[in-house]
Amino acid sequence: MAKKVGAKPRIGLLGTGPWAARTHAPALAGHADAEFSGVWGRRPEAAAALAAASGTRAFDDVDALFEASDAVALALPPDVQAPLAVRAAEAGCHVLLDKPVATTVAGARTVVDAVDAAGVASVVFCTLRFAEPTARWIDEQAAAGGWFLGEAHWLGSLYGPGSASAYAASPWRREKGGLWDVGPHVLSVYLPVLGDVTAITAVPGPGDTHHLVLRHASGASSTATLTLGAPPAAAEAALTLHGTAGRAELPRWDGAVTAFAAAVDALVTSARTGRPHPCDARFGLRLTEILTEAERRAAGHA
Description:
By secondary structure, the protein is an alpha/beta fold. It folds into two domains: 10-128 and 256-280, 3-Layer(aba) Sandwich (Rossmann fold), CATH 3.40.50.720; 132-137 and 144-251, 2-Layer Sandwich (Dihydrodipicolinate Reductase, domain 2). The chain is 43% helix and 23% strand. Strands 3-2-1-4-5-6 form a six-stranded parallel sheet, sandwiched between helices. Helix 5 (105-118) links the parallel strand 5 (94-98) and strand 6. The relative contact order is 0.17.
């Protein structure tokens, strides 16, 4: 049974990596309307250090953290996240998930099933849907309509020459590449504006690069080039829409901590009202379905 969310909900954190330390923990520790109930990690010493730096406590037992929390945020590799999200939902905790929810359709579906069975709220933290400039832009373009084409280039340099990014040590990113790491960002914009994906063409490029051509329910088409291995001088994150009103470019954004705090607010609102958020676990499942099909089609051209 889902836990009731009071005036100041208790929110725990699962994960201790760079994303958890730089985004989730600061947002939870600084949130005026939430209590940061604790940290659990697969490395107890890392959990203790992050908890101490964030003014909360570390938990050695994840189930104890579930018991001490009304909701939990997960900053874990996707296929570690999914089974723990299921356990959290079964414990009645509302869940704030990271993207992708899982890298298998079966894994993502288990999360949806657990969330539905427990009646808990869920939100998937797709940064562009919660960062104020981009969230507002997405809503404006969805309301405007009339778009016939989307073009996106998300060329990360995580694995480019000379990269010193802390995220480069992530095994799942190394294995799955830009399709799975930055692909959800692009899809999180395209789907609410252009409609669901109804057809996919995908081919591989150099390294982990993938080129996607998508057909949408609105009749529009879109393209996306995705990689984590671009040379730093070529790095870019851009998305442009073309339609009856002309062209519209996704604005710049920053402040992942602020965006995550907005996602916390969205989860709490969903838990209190019982209304699903557009970026819920079911949306996360749809992203996994699309990316799985794109990966399959690209493998056929390798």
